[in-house]
Specification:
With about 625 residues, this protein is an alpha/beta fold. Helix content is about 30%, strand content about 25%. An eight-stranded mixed beta sheet has the order 12-11-8-6-7-14-15-23, sandwiched between helices. Strands 5-4-17-16-18-19-20 form a seven-stranded mixed beta sheet, sandwiched between helices. The protein has a four-stranded antiparallel beta sheet with strand order 21-22-24-25, with no helix packed on it. Strand 14 and strand 15 form a beta hairpin. Helix 1 packs across helix 2 and helix 5 crosses helix 9. The radius of gyration is 24 Å and the shape is globular.
Length: about 625
């Protein structure tokens, strides 16, 4: 895969024009040259925005793990595929070669088969960032099972909801996990969750922290003894291009999480292509993405994209602050990392620490820096550029989503001049459009609107598991013949895009998408709570933090407000996970409502953000007097 690099801006424009003039032939050429197919496609693309239905490389047959592993064995068998860096710096790093990965994936795949997992079955993976996590994804893909990774910071309730939504047959987990100086009882969380899951037939348990855990007779099995018995080869299941590869849940603005379904061929082609170009990946590079594989960034740019290119991909189990705030930079020096991809929230957190943590490490191996997950503010961008890149590494601010499967708008290093806070230009084949509220496309530059994509691309999610109508309603109904992203964006005078944030009720906290509705649902279950409204407000480190307005029931009981705040956050932790806890909770006697009973979140957002100069017209509210009360008692 050597000749699909884009090297100059001129070349970018040429390639881009070609890619949008004839997307089918553009992607066909890439698919033809760089991958292993058992059968060629009959048709590159067919689509219908009304149904909506999108099919890429229909008729083709392949297995993604042959593309990510087997075909590298001849030339790169002894090369490190996964470089595992444990939580504790005193524990040795593991270099898993392509040969070894091939064997371990086959053994794992054989264990899955022995436990009755077949093509099309759903397997839930709830693991910390240890090699078995990546191996589990690949083992599912090897036999055509659909993986559904649930981030191992989610609570037992959140885990159960996701298992039940796609009726998974198996869970792969571990006894526990390390997180800095703490351990987390993962198996305990799984046991609790499985009390309400009927579809689970077996649980495979990786031994990681050697804790004493409960093993349910007949259901739970230690993984290692099964692997020891398993055959070291496993023939790949031959998949159709549009067979589902995985489900990954993302928060919606209302109701239950959405199980985004990604399929095989298009996802493979697009993640491999974007990995190579956005990170300007070269054969001997050591690439490190700090995301968790529980999020799409980890799926596409720790596992599939890098391995499809035969790269060495670093997997880090720990946190940036343990044993101290130099941990990231120590790892960069230790493994001579060449591409480093992280989130603005991590950059902001580390930027607040003493510069000595950075300066005592040699970061000269770095070539390209990346960010993802939320808008990066100017200050953080410059800190990253000056102190980590030493003004010598292009920064790629990559905009994309769980739904898009791969990076959509991003600079290409050494060809697109970067400007802080701008994701810059669309990648080849991606056709963004800005739309006004009436549904008309806003042409020209120096404009802003709702960000849509007006032509299909290979790695778009194909449906929401079990709910195609919701897929249509959420993404294809706001604007005709367009995919609606849920983000707002502006296009500057040269055509660069800057993402301005969500236009719906999703708040991005430390790079994690959180729907406010499920958090409100969780709080409202507290016996003392009558009603609540959650909004995001700008936060120095997290980007956004959550602010809760809570109306208490009139029980006559006088309760200690600080205790109530703790109880409310504990409920959120239990039902969703600690990432969704509220930074500030204000008790109030009412919430501003429209006459149709809708909470006016716009006003609550402004008050929480200390931006009350222009609250807009409040006279149409049902209860305008409440606004002053809320302002008087705001928590600073
Ligand atoms: C990959 C990922 C998607 C939402 C997206 C947008 C925000 C992601 C961004 C960005 C500004 C960037 N987002 N990257 N905003 N600049 N470079 O994060 O997927 O977890 O589904 O989140 O994240 O709001 O709509 P996901």
């Amino acid at each position: 895969m050597s000749n699909y690099h884009i090297k100059h801006l001129e070349e970018y424009f040429q390639v881009y024009r070609k890619s949008v003039r004839n997307p089918e032939s553009y992607w066909e050429e890439i698919a033809e040259e760089h991958f292993l197919w058992h059968k060629r496609w009959d048709n590159v693309l067919s689509y219908d925005f009304d149904k909506p239905e999108f099919k890429w490389f229909e008729g083709a047959q392949l297995n993604i793990t042959e593309n990510c592993i087997d075909r590298h064995l001849r030339t790169r068998g002894d090369k490190t595929a996964i470089l595992f860096e444990p939580n504790d710096p005193k524990e040795k790093a593991q270099h898993i070669t392509y040969n070894e990965l091939h064997k371990r994936v086959a053994q794992m795949a054989n264990v899955l088969k022995a436990k009755g997992i077949k093509k099309g079955d759903r397997v839930c993976i709830y693991l910390p960032m240890i090699p078995e996590l990546a191996i589990s994804l690949l083992a599912c893909a090897r036999i055509g099972a659909i993986h559904s990774v649930v981030f191992a910071g989610f609570s037992s309730k959140a885990l159960a909801t996701r298992i039940n939504d796609s009726s998974c047959k198996m869970v792969i987990t571990s006894d526990g996990s390390y997180r800095g100086s703490k351990t987390i009882d993962l198996k305990g969380i799984v046991d609790e969750g499985l009390k309400s899951c009927e579809s689970i037939e077996s649980v495979l348990v990786v031994k990681r922290i050697n804790s004493d855990i409960h093993m349910e007779e007949g259901r739970d099995h230690w993984l290692q003894p099964l692997l020891d018995e398993a055959e070291e080869t496993c023939a790949p299941e031959i998949m159709n291009a549009e067979d589902p590869l995985f489900i990954l849940y993302t928060s919606g603005s209302t109701g239950t999480p959405k199980g985004m379904v990604h399929t095989t061929a298009g996802y493979m082609v697009y993640t491999a292509f974007t990995f190579k170009n956005v990170f300007q990946y070269r054969e001997d590079d050591i690439y490190w993405c700090t995301a968790d594989i529980g999020w799409i960034t980890g799926h596409s740019y720790i596992v599939y994209g890098p391995l499809a290119n035969g790269a060495t991909t670093v997997m880090f189990e720990g946190v940036p602050s343990y044993p101290d705030h130099a941990r990231f930079w120590e790892i960069v020096e230790k493994h001579k990392v060449t591409q480093f991809y992280t989130a603005p929230t991590a950059i902001r957190a580390l930027g607040k620490e003493n510069l000595d943590f950075v300066e005592k490490h040699d970061l000269s191996s770095l070539k390209v820096l990346g960010t993802v997950g939320e808008p990066i503010n100017e200050e953080a961008w410059h800190w990253y550029d000056e102190n980590i890149g030493k003004r010598n590494c292009p920064i790629v601010d990559t905009w994309w989503q769980t739904e898009t499967g791969g990076i959509m708008i991003s600079p290409i290093p050494y060809s697109t001049p970067a400007i802080p806070t701008f994701a810059t230009l669309p990648l080849p084949g991606i056709q963004p459009a800005l739309m006004d509220e009436e549904g008309k496309e806003i042409k020209g530059n120096q404009v802003d609107g709702r960000l849509c994509i007006k032509f299909p691309w290979p790695s778009m999610a194909r449906t929401i598991w079990g709910n195609h109508q919701r897929y249509k309603d959420t993404y294809f109904s706001a604007f005709k013949n367009m995919y609606f992203t849920g983000d707002g964006a502006l296009r500057d005078s040269v055509g660069y895009y800057r993402i301005t944030g969500r236009v719906d009720d999703v708040v991005i906290v430390s790079g994690h998408n959180l729907g406010t509705a499920p958090i409100e649902d969780a709080i409202n279950e507290h016996p003392a709570v009558a009603e609540s409204a959650i909004v995001g407000y700008p936060h120095e480190v997290k980007g956004n933090a959550l602010y809760g307005y809570v109306i208490l029931k009139e029980t006559g009981e006088t309760r200690n407000q600080d205790n109530l705040r703790k109880e409310i956050n504990q409920m959120i932790s239990d039902r969703i996970g600690p990432i969704a806890k509220l930074n500030k909770i204000q008790f109030t006697s009412g919430l501003p409502k429209t006459r149709s009973g809708k909470i006016m979140r716009r006003i609550l957002r402004k008050i929480a953000s200390n931006d009350t100069s222009n609250l807009g017209d409040t006279s149409t509210l049902l209860n305008p007097e409440i606004v002053q009360e809320i302002m008087d008692n705001v928590i600073k």
